[in-house]
Design brief:
42% of the residues lie in helices and 31% in strands. The chain is of the alpha+beta class. It has a single domain (2-89), classed as RNA polymerase, RBP11-like subunit (Gyrase A, domain 2), CATH 3.30.1360.10. The protein has a 4-stranded antiparallel β-sheet with strand order 1-2-4-3. β1 and β2 form a beta hairpin.
Length: 90
């Protein structure tokens, strides 16, 4: 995965997320929206096979990059827990 910063403002970020699709984007968006500091989180992908997704994030408070890091960490922990559960059942 490659992340390219398109636009950064005090309360928002716009990123290109290369080599990823909705498998990552939907959980990331949903995790961000569960954070009360986040006012808007979404992505735009015109064609899933041809275009690079553009991800948008806007916060009510704090820094948008901190909200993004917090969401990524939470998702990472969730998937680690899932992997542990699958491993124990095998």
């Amino acid at each position: 995965m490659q992340v390219e910063l398109i636009k950064k403002e005090k309360d928002s970020l716009e990123l290109k997320i290369r080599e990823e699709g909705e498998t990552l984007l939907i959980p990331l968006r949903n995790q961000l929206l569960s954070d009360e500091a986040v006012s808007h989180s979404n992505y735009n992908i015109r064609h899933p096979k041809l275009d690079t997704p553009i991800f948008y994030l806007k916060v009510r408070s704090g820094k948008p990059q901190n909200a993004l890091k917090k969401a990524a960490k939470a998702l990472s922990n969730t998937y680690k827990d899932m992997l542990g559960q699958f491993s124990r059942q095998s």
